Amino acid sequence: MLGAAALVLALGGAAMATPLTSPVDAMHLFKRISSGCSTSGALSCSSSAAGSCCFESPGGLLLQTQFWDFNPSTGPSDSWTIHGLWPDNCDGTFEENCDSSRAYTNIAGLLTAQGASDTLSFMNTHWVDINGQNEKFWEHEWSTHGTCYSTLETSCLPSGSAKGAEAVAFFNTVVKLFKSLPTYDWLAQAGITPSSSKTYTLAQITSALKSASGVTPALDCTSGSLNQISYYYHLRGSVIDGSFVLIDAPKKGSCAATGLKYPLKSGSASPTTTAGGSAPTDGSLPSKAHLQASTTGGLLTGGTWSTQTPATYTLSGSSSSFTMSTSKGNCGVSGGQLTCASGVSASTFSAVSSGGNLLLAFSGSTAFTSDATPSGTTQQTVFTGSSHAVDFTLSIVSA
């Protein structure tokens, strides 16, 4: 997957003198737990030492990968989105799915329970699955890649750490690293912006990114269009709170030298969903729809949030002003709580197009919240705004 160890080390040594202004200090990225490791020790891939709580090995070459999903589009129109943080070995190989006993599910619940709701909120907009399966995407990235970090073994955690604390640390670190790599902004500063007609050379793009970051990342393309970028790091200390040092990519991506397209996020295809429908691409309002949560599950007939099969809602009106009802009756908001039942006065809602999805809005806001993430047969009350523990959005999906 990667170049030979000698090449990795040579490129790493050349780039270490020009990291982002200074190495990303993850001690400031994640303050909820501490590894107790020094950030002045050996740099990963610089020795053949075995992996430990304070030295990442064998996966000491870390890739922060980002997507530019444009057809169907995901995430903000002015930002790339997160793919993951992958631990590649220093010899051209890599490990995956290293500990099935820690293949956690309900990542949203873990993050919320352990005080990382801010990270979850960001993930809901910037770490999104092309098919609307965010939770499954996060579970995959953790179980496939996160479980392979030696510095995130459970034995490395502080005494008394909650179950899954190492996964929470992983997601916090990935999000903070992503925020330090604003690919869209860096390209825009060089006049490289999404377009339906312009093309760019690989040299133009990599030059702009190197000017901003100090390193040359690897760019991957699909049918001549930018699709993914990979930034490479070496690490001093732990993934939890170590020092991440950007290095030049040890290999080139798949993009050609010229004629590269950077498409607008306005693809014609629409994401499929767990409910089996699709989000209208023209912003039109379906008459029958499911309300699917951005994290997991959707709303039942009473207006509660559940992981069970979402209910069918009847929508009456236009996207700018409509009412909703289910088999239980009208849907309304009272005291900030959403309820659908007989005798409820119908509230007026609106729909907002965002990243290829049609989001439910109340009083102009697409923010909804609950006290916890549902699981099994447990349902959660839905509130408008962001005053409770778990934040999410609701996609209107044609039934």
TrEMBL record:
GO MF entry, a single one: ribonuclease T2 activity
Gene Ontology BP terms: RNA catabolic process
Biased composition (Polar residues): 267-276
Broadest EC class assigned to this enzyme: lyase
Annotated region described as Disordered, given as residue ranges: 265-290
GO CC terms of this entry: extracellular region; vacuolar lumen
Keywords, alphabetical: Cytoplasm, Disulfide bond, Glycoprotein, Hydrolase, Lyase, Nuclease, Signal, Vacuole
Residues forming the catalytic site: H83, E141, H145
The enzyme's E.C. designation: 4.6.1.19
PROSITE patterns in the cross-refs: RNASE_T2_1 (PS00530), RNASE_T2_2 (PS00531)
Cross-referenced Pfam families: Ribonuclease_T2, RNaseT2L_C
Localization per Swiss-Prot or TrEMBL: Cytoplasm; Vacuole lumen
PANTHER family found in the cross-reference section: RIBONUCLEASE T2 (PTHR11240)
Family per similarity comment: Belongs to the RNase T2 family.
Function: Rnase which modulates cell survival under stress conditions. Released from the vacuole to the cytoplasm during stress to promote tRNA and rRNA cleavage and to activate separately a downstream pathway that promotes cell death. Involved in cell size, vacuolar morphology and growth at high temperatures and high salt concentration.
Protein name: Ribonuclease T2-like
